[in-house]
Amino acid sequence: MSLTVNLYYTGKNGSARKFAEEMESSGVADRIRKEPGNEKYKYFIPLDDPETILLIDSWKNQESLDAHHASPMMQELADLRNKYDLHMRVERYISDKNGVPSSDQKFIADCKIKLNT
User: CB count, 10 Å around CB of 82?
Assistant: First the structure.
């Protein structure tokens, strides 16, 4: 089982993008990627909302996510979020242990399917 949390950071005048850039340039994002149980930590820009940054954050299990939340890095994240005056929206997903069903695979053209089981 994997947990994926989509975090939408929204600000004004490019502040969400500046936040993500500072997360990367300061090394905080890389330190999170190296935490035990982290499977993905990656920023994206929605095409329909340039004032929002999407973070896709995946963890092996709830215990690894709990350890991350208890780490001192969470204060660094909060400080940067406050620095850029960002607002958040969160979605949480749990992976399907059976993966992508064969009935759906026919709609996925020429790609490899990564199963998080």
Answer: 9
* Residue 70: other Cβ atoms inside 10 A: 9
pLDDT single digits (tens) 69-80: 999 989 999 999
pTM of the model: 0.84
End-to-end CA distance of the chain: 5
Give every strand in the sheet of 52-59, ordered side by side. Answer: 38-44, 52-59, 3-10, 87-94
Name the residue type at position 70. A
Cβ-Cβ contacts under 8 Å for 111 (sequence gap 6 or more):
none
> Using CA atoms, how far apart are residues 19 and 85, in angstroms rounded to an integer?
9
pLDDT digits (tens, 9 = 90+) for 67-110: 999 999 899 999 999 999 999 999 999 987 777 777 777 777 65
Type and span of the H or E element at 24: helix 15-25
